[in-house]
Amino acid sequence: MSENATDIGGGCYCGKVRYRASGVGAALVECHCSQCRKQSGHRYATALTEAAGVEIDGADAITWFRASSEAERGFCAACGSHLFWRSLNDDRMAILAASIDDASAFRLEKHIFVDDKGGYYEIADGLPRFAGYDTPRPPA
Fold this sequence. Notes:
The chain is mostly beta strands and 140 residues long. It has one domain (6-118): Beta Complex (Metal Binding Protein, Guanine Nucleotide Exchange Factor, Chain A). It is 5% helix and 44% strand. It is built from one helix and twelve strands. It has one helix at 34-40, and strands at residues 6-11, 18-24, 27-31, 44-50, 54-57, 62-66, 71-76, 82-87, 92-96, 107-112, 129-130, 136-137. Strands 6-7-8-9-4-3-10 form a seven-stranded mixed β-sheet. A three-stranded antiparallel β-sheet has the order 1-2-5, with no helix packed on it. A hairpin with a 4-residue loop joins strand 6 and strand 7 (71-76). The chain is globular, with a radius of gyration of 15 Å.
């Protein structure tokens, strides 16, 4: 992870799921793909880590939805809070920024899948934009 990695705690809205994660990168990535927007209701900001560094209390309350052949998304089955994105191909895991107890050390670093963003909003913060995970896209 990044040199600005930190240890965090967080959880869902109802408290049935709590997690601790070590070595979480301090950079947030905001995804604009239709899958993330449909699941969350809008944009989807996450902090990247390794799944091996995440401990979950109340894991039996998490429903994992296989969104594609590449990844699955974890949410609390009781309150519906979106918590995780997990790669099916390696140890990458993303934690939704809104579920982190104290996200003050985190900063939005870039936008991904901007070609798929919703037509009802603009991205106007000047941060790097990518058509996919890592295909650079010039600001509009």
